[in-house]
Amino acid sequence: MRALGHVFKYGDNVDTDVIIPARYLNSFDGKELASHAMVDIDPEFAKKVQPGDLIVANKNFGCGSSREHAPLCLKEAGVSCVIAETFARIFYRNAINIGLPIIECPEAARGIEAGDEVEVDFDSGKIYNRTKGTEFQGQAFPEFMQKLIAAGGLVNYTNNKRK
Amino acid sequence: MGMTMTQKILAAHAGLDSVVPGQLIEAKLDVVMANDITGPMAVPVFNQMADKVFDKEKVVLVPDHFTPNKDIKSAENSKSIREFSKCQCLKHYFEIGQMGIEHAILPEKGIVVAGECIIGADSHTCTYGALGAFSTGVGTTDIATGMATGELWFKVPSAIKFVLSGKPSKYVSGKDIILHIIGRIGVDGALYKSMEFVGDGIQYLSMDDRFTMANMAIEAGAKNGIFPVDEKAENYMKEHSDKEYTIYTADDDAQYDEVVEVDLSKVRPTVAFPHLPGNAHTIDEIETMEPIKIDQVVIGSCTNGRMEDMRRAAAVLKGHKVHPDVRALVIPATQKIYLQCIEEGIVTTFIEAGCAFNTPSCGPCMGGHMGVMAAGEKCVSTTNRNFVGRMGHVDSLIYLASPEVAAASAIAGCIANPEKVGDK
């Protein structure tokens, strides 16, 4: 499994209120949420994002509320992977549970700029910056989470276990 | 190796003698809670896994965010969890009229007690750590899984120990202490970790102070915040709950990543400036700045909408008038608190001062309704987040503060020190 696309770059503490503001939370329709993704930090994002594109950010990405609408709107907008120095813990769980790949890698977060073309190999955790010709080793998912992702998320994982 | 309080609760709920930080476990859940934003999204996910909830007394639904319904879509969402609650025969569903903000009403109704393992599809679920429970926020898929199976996977957290000493001064409450702490460690200072509060200073903190502090553990990135169970906590649970509770204490040789000392006697009234809860300034620093004129004050929320918060704000406002340029909104967190405000004459104080006194709701905290801001407006709010656009327009500003600082600011029309308002 891999991701390939161009990068949207953000800073520290990108919170769930800017990823998907509460005024849109009266819906949980993925496509509708995707049309408002990142609107309060980057009003052009939803118009510009192409399937496969990546988000790269610094510390504490996804801090704030428990709204699963946040990873969902990014996934539905076509984001193939989020790379950050660190993630807020609820966002981390939610992203994995719905199958949005996320990788912690401080070096990549520093060495990738907006617009770079980046490829991620999820099996090895390797991140290639094709634009700059650099490579980073991201944290691969622990075995438990790989099983969960391989099952297609927590719902299937739970159903498999209960069979 | 010794365990922290949180690790002991998790070990017990995973059926293990001991756990270590980083270990992945599956733990049994005592309470699984969702609201009118996360609940409706969880219902279709739940339906993929089960027909019946694992325990109809342990699954709790509270329509509190966009209620009383702010628009048609919100009404449809509320309807879906109302119907789900009826169909599943849930014991704890709180309709408008009995409803309170989730993190105020669950302790008040005795649904959560010490020693339990609790998840809620709301990030401020960490509030119940004030009672000595392990309690954490999760998303929709996790909550649906919890509703179906009564179990969830967790990574055992390491912990930071906060040693509280000394007695806070008159106008310093739990809000000032937690803003001070987040100001010191940063909004990711406790990322993935437990915040375990200990020390002699805890005896001076009321249960409402502790709920406020545990509530904002998430604003430092923590998985949970937790207090030891002392006589005050036991008395609270005996008064509010019939449930049996279990007291866990950290081992003497428990390992902590860090120990942070906090002298409560030195904490000053503290305000978090836009756009992070960690952007803390003391009232003394603020008094040296140009006055920060404000348009709105909000007193309420899961952080500061409890009875003591109402009393503290009213004591400052009594005999004063809200500044003509300010809209002051007071929102008690539950119906019980609402009624008690009437009985104690506090509502009269608020209304005579020129405040709006509203029905329980999360309301303006997340920019839902009942106090959304326009471009360029500033608000002093007792809520928990001051992110960009949180309370409305992307160009509006939120300053987080205690009920007393909020009340003093409502009178002055700018951020103000409650110590200097003076009695009338």
Could you characterize what this model shows?
The complex is a heterodimer of chains A (163) and B (424). With 163 residues, chain A is of the alpha/beta class. Chain A is 33% helix and 20% strand. Chain A has 8 helices and 7 strands. In chain A, strands 4-3-2-1-5-6-7 form a 7-stranded mixed sheet. Chain A is globular, with a radius of gyration of 15 Å. Chain A starts with a strand and ends with a helix. The model of chain A has no long low-confidence stretch (mean pLDDT 93). With 424 residues, chain B is α/β, with parallel strands linked by helices. Chain B is built from 14 helices and 18 strands. Chain B has helices at residues 5-13, 38-47, 72-87, 102-108, 140-149, 174-185, 207-215, 231-240, 283-287, 301-304, 307-317, 335-343, 346-353, 403-412, and strands at residues 24-28, 31-35, 59-62, 92-93, 117-120, 134-137, 151-155, 159-165, 194-198, 224-226, 258-263, 270-272, 280-282, 296-300, 327-331, 356-357, 378-381, 397-400. In chain B, strands 4-3-2-5-6 form a 5-stranded parallel sheet, covered by helices on one side. A 5-stranded parallel sheet of chain B has the order 16-15-14-17-18. A 4-stranded parallel sheet of chain B has the order 10-9-8-11, covered by helices on one side. In chain B, strand 8, helix 6 (174-185) and strand 9 form a beta-alpha-beta unit. In chain B, helix 2 (38-47) packs across helix 5 (140-149) and helix 11 (307-317) crosses helix 13. The longest helix of chain B is centred in the first third of the chain and has 16 residues, at 72-87. The radius of gyration of chain B is 20 Å and the shape is globular.
